[in-house]
Amino acid sequence: MNKGQTLGIAIISAICILIIGFAIINLLTPEITRFRVSMNCASPSDISDGVMLTCLASDIVVIYWIWLIVSISLGGIISRFI
Description:
Elements: H1 3-38, H2 49-78
Helix pairs in contact: 1-2
């Protein structure tokens, strides 16, 4: 196949990865919310430093997941140009 054909396949594959990744984010979000409620992350006055760091790490999970999905998708598309 020439580069024009593989680029279309790469774009379709990247769109599929994005759709699946964002569907997984919708599955993770309620679990993260349940975790934050069980760790009592809403009231910072009565939590320790270790628990506060754990709460901050749980907030960053969704952002890291979005970056991972976008970088994998873009990597698949850009790899067809090389």
